[in-house]
Design goal:
The complex is a heterodimer of chains A (about 55) and B (about 170).
Chain A (H helix, E strand, L loop, with lengths): L1 E6 L5 E5 L2 H17 L3 H16 L1
Antiparallel strand pairs in A: 1-2
Chain B lengths: L3 E3 L3 E3 L6 E2 L3 E2 L5 E5 L7 E11 L5 E6 L8 E7 L3 E5 L3 E2 L10 E11 L2 E10 L4 E10 L6 E6 L6 E10 L1
Antiparallel strand pairs in B: 1-2, 3-15, 4-15, 5-14, 6-11, 6-15, 7-10, 7-14, 8-9, 8-13, 11-12, 12-13
The chains are: A alpha+beta (about 55), B mainly beta (about 170).
């Protein structure tokens, strides 16, 4: 896995291999993000509220 | 009054100017970083043309000063008729994602002052009828000098399209 870096001043393009630490950090960040997301049930309940409001 | 347009210092003469980068093929890499953005920049437009990834992790934009910030964002992403979610890790460009999904659009960041950047964007899925509206803000500890386009899990790979930035 790698990251592409473009220097906007010089136009230089570099391909940088991700370090194990960067991958671990990304995975930790992803897990944190997932935990903060509403569940499907919560999303369905929210949509149902909107449907009910439209029907009322 | 003569104006000097320079990619490093911008326009001398207190006038507006656009500096466009060279479009980067988003056909590889888990992230694409635009670095060394000049300190005089007040507005940045990130352009996406037919972009896709090989997975289901949501694409997103992060910014930074010296390094990329991965927290402290106050953003929201609304995907037509499906999802509406808040995020603190980035400006998230999609409400859902899959490996065959292709999207295009612009995301614009403007400097409010005191290193506070406000962003808004519209991303259209070009492979189906679907659109995303997103926005929010991010306070940096210093002058913005980089923009990163990546995915939430950081490991999905870009596999189609091109990305470019315009700064002024």
């Amino acid at each position: 896995m790698n990251r592409i870096e473009i220097n906007v001043i010089t136009g230089e393009r570099q391909v940088v291999e991700l370090t194990a630490e960067e991958v671990a950090q990304a995975q930790a960040s992803h897990a944190e993000w997932l935990a903060a997301q509403p569940t499907k049930e919560e999303q369905i309940a929210k949509l149902q509220e909107q449907i009910d409001a439209l029907k009322a | 009054m003569p104006l000097e347009l320079n990619g490093t210092t911008g326009v001398q003469g207190n006038s507006g100017a656009f500096v466009a980068g060279t479009a980067v093929a988003s056909t590889s890499g888990t992230s694409i970083d635009f670095t060394s953005i000049p300190s005089w920049v007040k507005r940045i437009t990130v352009m996406f043309n037919g972009v896709s990834t090989n997975g289901s992790s949501l694409p997103m934009i992060q910014i930074g000063s010296g390094s990329v910030d991965t927290s402290g964002y106050l953003t929201e992403t609304w995907q037509a008729n499906t999802t509406n979610s808040n995020h603190t890790n980035a400006f998230v460009l999609r409400g859902s994602m899959n490996s065959s999904l292709i999207f295009s659009g612009n995301f614009v960041l403007t400097l409010m002052g005191s290193n506070v950047w406000v962003g808004t964007g519209i991303m259209a899925q070009t492979s189906a009828a679907d659109i995303v509206v997103l926005g929010g803000d991010k306070s940096l500890s210093g002058t913005l000098d980089r923009v990163r386009i990546t995915t939430v899990n950081g490991t999905d790979t870009f596999d189609a399209g091109s990305i470019n930035i315009l700064y002024e």
